[in-house]
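thought: user wants a sequence for this fold. calling inverse folding tool.
action: design(structure=
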């Protein structure tokens, strides 16, 4: 078995509205948007990155807010 090192972990979270999620993280927390696709949002603050995927499941979106 070979040894390996994990250098980065990127949380992937659901979002009911990618635009509102982007605005909150940028305006309130200082993240910057580094990527946007129809169903995926990529945000970064210093070396920390968050990915948000679009969902229409209200229960899932509310439980992660």
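)
observation: tool returned 65 residues.
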């Amino acid at each position: 078995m070979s040894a390996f090192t994990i250098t980065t972990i990127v949380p992937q979270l659901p979002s009911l509205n990618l635009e509102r999620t982007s605005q909150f993280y940028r305006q309130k927390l200082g993240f910057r948007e580094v990527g946007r696709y129809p169903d995926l949002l990529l945000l970064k603050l210093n070396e920390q990155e968050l990915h948000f995927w679009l969902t229409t499941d209200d229960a899932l979106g509310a439980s992660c807010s």
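thought: summarizing for user.
answer: Here is the designed sequence. The first strand starts at residue 12 and ends at 15.
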